[in-house]
Every structure is written in structure tokens, then in C-alpha cells.
């Protein structure tokens, strides 16, 4: 009888190990699917980067890297109204390091530069993530 209990414990431990391995594989797979994109490619986040997302497929969890001269621009995550009006709503997240990473949420993600005149000159971008 003692031998049967040992086998049951070994089977339980094996199932726990298998579950842990499967969890690690699933988590790794989720992160492996995320991609990192440099906005504007080599040109970076500039007045001409608004059309940069065209033709690209983004997924929730992908990361956008905004590279620009610190102090020359910024990146503000806004809602649709802020995008349309080129204004940052109260409480909007502002990035200003010159090398900012932003994780995309499912749906349309809107970004503007809030330096006066920049958004109106086209420094804004809408990125839709599946």
C-alpha cells in the first residue's frame, strides 16, 4: 500500500511540473509575439511621421519607440478628441525623454506632439492594434 501512495505523489508532482512548464511556454509565447517598432524608422518621430503606420499590422502589446531630439518634440498619448483637435486632455500621459517606449493597447492609439504648432503641422499619429 505504501508503494501506491508514493506513486500517487510522484504522479502529482509530475502533473505540477508539467503545468509549470506549460505556463512558462504560454507566457513566453505571448511575449515572443510582441514586436518593437521605431516610429518613423531611421527618421524618428518628426513632422513627417504621421503616415508611418500605413501598411503595418500592429497587435496589442507591441511597443512603439519614439526617438526624437529631447526638448524639440514630445509624445502625448491622447484620445480621439485630443487627436482631432490637437490638444492634450487633462491627465494625458506626456513622454519627453527623446527615447520613449509606449505599449499599444487593443484598438486605436492616438499620439500627438504638444509643442505649439507641431500637431497642426501633421505631427500626430493614429495606430490601430488588433
| Percent helix range | 25-40%
Number of strands: 7
Q: Which percent range describes the beta-strand content? A: 15-25%
> Which stretches of 5+ consecutive residues score pLDDT under 50?
none
CATH superfamily of the largest domain: Cupredoxins -  blue copper proteins
- Walk across the major sheet and give the strand order: 4-3-6-7
Please, how many helices?
2
**Main β-sheet description:** 4 strands, antiparallel
Task: Examine the coordinates and then state which fold CATH places here, giving the name of the CATH topology of the largest domain.
Answer: Immunoglobulin-like
Give the integer mean of the pLDDT values.
Answer: 86
Indicate the radius of gyration in whole angstroms: 23 Å
| Main structural class | alpha+beta
The CATH class name of the largest domain reads: Mainly Beta
What would you call the shape?
elongated
Give the name of the CATH architecture of the largest domain: Sandwich
Pfam families: Cu_bind_like (PF02298)
Organism: Brachypodium distachyon (Purple false brome)
Keywords: Copper, Disulfide bond, Metal-binding, Signal
GO molecular function: electron transfer activity; metal ion binding
Question: How would you describe what is shown here?
Answer:
This protein is an alpha+beta fold and 130 residues long. The protein has a four-stranded antiparallel beta sheet. Strands 1-2-5 form a three-stranded mixed beta sheet, with no helix packed on it. The model has no long low-confidence stretch (mean pLDDT 86). 29% of the residues lie in helices and 25% in strands.
Amino acid at each position: 500500500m505504501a508503494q501506491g501512495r508514493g506513486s500517487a505523489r510522484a504522479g502529482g508532482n509530475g502533473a505540477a511540473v508539467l503545468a509549470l512548464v506549460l505556463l512558462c511556454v504560454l507566457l513566453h509565447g505571448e511575449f515572443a509575439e510582441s514586436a518593437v517598432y521605431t516610429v518613423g524608422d531611421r527618421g524618428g518621430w518628426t513632422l513627417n511621421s504621421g503616415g508611418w503606420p500605413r501598411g503595418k499590422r500592429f497587435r496589442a502589446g507591441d511597443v512603439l519607440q519614439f526617438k526624437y531630439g529631447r526638448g524639440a518634440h514630445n509624445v502625448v498619448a491622447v484620445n480621439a478628441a485630443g487627436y482631432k483637435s490637437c490638444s492634450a486632455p487633462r491627465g494625458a500621459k506626456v513622454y519627453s525623454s527623446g527615447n520613449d517606449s509606449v505599449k499599444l493597447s487593443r484598438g486605436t492609439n492616438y499620439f500627438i506632439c504638444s509643442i505649439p504648432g507641431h500637431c497642426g503641422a501633421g505631427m500626430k499619429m493614429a495606430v490601430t492594434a488588433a
